Amino acid sequence: MVNLVIDGKNIEAEAGTTILAAARENGIYIPTLCHHESLEPSGACRLCVVEVAKGSRKRIVTSCIYQVEDGIVVDTKSERVLGVRRLVLELLMARCPKSDVIRTMAQELGVAPEKRFLPDKDKGKCVLCRLCVKTCEDVVGASAIGFSFRGKDKIVGPPFVEDSKACIGCGACAYVCPTGHIEMTAGNGGSERTIWGRTFKMAACSVCGRYFAPEDQLQFISSKTGVPLEDLMVCMSCR
Ligand code: SF4
Ligand code: FES
Questions:
Q1: What is the mean pLDDT of the chain?
Q2: How do residues 30-39 score in pLDDT, each as one tens digit?
Q3: Which of 50, 52, 116, 146 has the most crowded CB, counting CB atoms within 10 A?
């Protein structure tokens, strides 16, 4: 076990735990945007920064990837920490002026849109956190989306910004997206689902008749697991 102090509280944490996890286990709040419990952290948004003192040396680290160490003293709300978080939020607000999630976080920290960062008009609510891409690759195994272009033009979506043949319409990317950037809509009485500009036919449960999953998703699961497609045509409630 490792002994450390977070915001004046003595804490014992397992070696290998991140500062973020240790703080959360002890009821200490650190804001996050690109963190999801089920996925490897990427340290993309930098909102979770904290200040770590080790001996006489202090530095700002990213708490979702920095592991606990014996004897460190962590401050989650120092002036330096709040300054970095404010700057991150000013940049995020300029990139995604329409994001309610970011606006609310900014309000909590008393951050207003900064005039020196011109608002972006065409990036929607995407903060390039990569959660959707990692979910599609590592959890679903479809690898249907990724990043296109570079620098300020970077966007997320299917390759070449065209309909992705690899997309199975599962909607896992929309579920994990922290800002609601990915639009997923149901149509035609629930018999269709549209996501990333492509419309999927939904399968109806063979017991209750309710539309419950895209046919492409069920075919994908069947091909990966070897379970016959007919056995997958029953919704969770009727199993
Ligand atoms: S679409 Fe959402 S989950 Fe994907 S990178 Fe953008 S903000 Fe993150
Ligand atoms: S939550 Fe740690 S960098 Fe985004």
A1: 94
A2: 999 999 999 9
A3: 50
Q: Closest Cα to atom 4, ligand 1: which residue? A: 132
Q: Does residue 126 have its Cβ closer than 6 Å to ligand 1? A: yes
Beta strand extents in 71-197 (DSSP E only): 73-75, 146-148, 155-157, 184-187, 192-195
Each residue's pLDDT tens digit, 47-90 = 999 999 998 999 999 999 999 999 999 999 999 999 999 999 99
- For residue 115, tell me if it sits in a domain: no
Domain with 140 in it: 131-238
Residue nearest to atom 3 of ligand 2 (CA): 43
Q: Considering 73, 108, 143, which residue would you say is the last residue of a domain?
A: 108
3-state SS string for 94-107? HHCCCCHHHHHHHH
Same domain? 75 vs 173 = no
Block residue for tokens 């959890």: 139
Residue whose CB lies within 8 A of the most ligand 1 atoms, among 34, 126, 134, 139, for a mutation test: 126
